[in-house]
Amino acid sequence: MKMEEVSMSSLDNSKLEALAQDILSDLVEDACLGLCFEVHRAVKQGYFFLDDTDQESMRDFEIVDQPGLDVFGQVYNQWKNKECVCPNCSRSIAASRFAPHLEKCLGMGRNSSRIANRRIVTGNNNNNKSESDQEDNDDVNDNDWSYGAEKKAKKRKSDKVHLYITICDCFSLYYQSVLVYICFYKIYFFIVC
Amino acid sequence: MSKDSQMRAAINQKLIEMGERERLKELLRAKLVECGWKDQLKAHCKDVIREKGLEHVTVEDLVTEVTPKGRALVPDSVKKELLQRIRAFLAQHATL
Fold first, then answer.
1. Topology (CATH level 3) of domain B1-91
2. Burial class (CB in 10 A: 0-12, 13-18, 19+), A115
3. Best residue of B44, B49, B69, B80 to probe chain A, by most A CBs closer than 10 Å
4. Residues in A touching B38 (Cβ below 8 Å)
C-alpha cells in the first residue's frame, strides 16, 4: 500500500474526526485487553486475591482516633514522667534526664567527674597517697583523653622558650654591635688626634 | 476495498511504523493508572471472578464483562488529551 494514495483532498474534517475516534477506541480496547490478560494471569497463578483480607483482621488494625491515644491505641506519652533509679548512686531521676546523669555518675563521656570524685575520696584518707599518685600518672598518660591537650600545651611551652631565646639573641647582637661601634669610634679619635 | 478503508489501513500502518501508536498506548496506560481507572476495573474484575468461580473464569469472560465498562470509565480529560495527540499526528501525516 502506498502512502501517496492517502491525500488530504479525500479527507474532510468529519472523516478525520471519525478516524481519530476509531484510533482512540482501538487504544482503549487494547488497554482493556491488557488488563484482562493481567487479571486472568493473576487469577490462574493465584495471586489476584492476595491483597484481600477478611473484615475481622482489618478491624484489628483499624486506625484509632481518640484523644490521648496514638494511631495504634497506645498512650503516647506514658513514659514522659517515669522515673528511673540510678544503679550507681541509687537516686531516682526523671527518665529524660537519666542518660546524662548516668554519664556523669559513672564517669564516662567528656565531662567526667570520676577523677574529681576519686581525688575527694583519696583526699579524705591521705594514708594511701602512693596509690593516688599512681592514678594521677595514669590519667596523665591516658592517651585516649588527654593526648591532644597535652600536645598542645607542650607545643605552647616550647614556643615560649623559643621566643625567649630569639629575644636574647637579638639583645646580645645589639650589644655586640654597639661595642664594636664604640671601639671603632675610639680608634678614629686616636688617629685624628 | 473501498478507498476509505484503504486510507484507514494506511494511516494505521503509518501509526505503527512511526512508533506513535506505541507511545500513545504508553501514555494512555499511564493516564489510566493515574486516574484510578485500573483500580476500578480491577474491583469489577473481582466481582466477575467471584460470580463465575475462580476455576472457571476465562479471558473471554473477562473481556466481555470488562470492555464495555472500561470504555465508559475512561475520563473525558484523558480522552481529550489522546484525541489531541491523534489529531496532531493525522494533520502531520495525512497530507503526505
1. Serum Albumin; Chain A, Domain 1 (1.10.246)
2. middle
3. B49
4. 35
C-alpha distance from residue A136 to each of A26, A74, A141, B58, B79 (Å): 89, 52, 9, 87, 85
ipTM summary value: 0.91
Q: What are the grid coordinates assigned to B2, written together?
A: 473501498
Instruction: Provide the pLDDT for residue B76.
Output: 95
Q: Which of B77, B81, B90, B93 to mutate to test the interface with A (most CBs of A within 10 A)?
A: B90
Quick: pLDDT tens for B14-34: 899 999 999 999 999 999 999
Q: CB of A21 within 8 Å of any CB in chain B?
A: yes
> Residues B39-94: pLDDT tens digits?
999 999 999 998 988 888 999 999 999 999 999 999 999 999 999 999 999 888 86
The residue behind cell 614556643 is: A159
Answer for the pair A121, A128: CB distance below 8 angstroms, yes or no: no
Residue type, A68: G
| Cross-chain Cβ contact B41/A35 below 8 Å | yes
Closest approach of A50 to chain B, Cα-based (Å): 12
Q: Which amino acid is at A38?
A: E
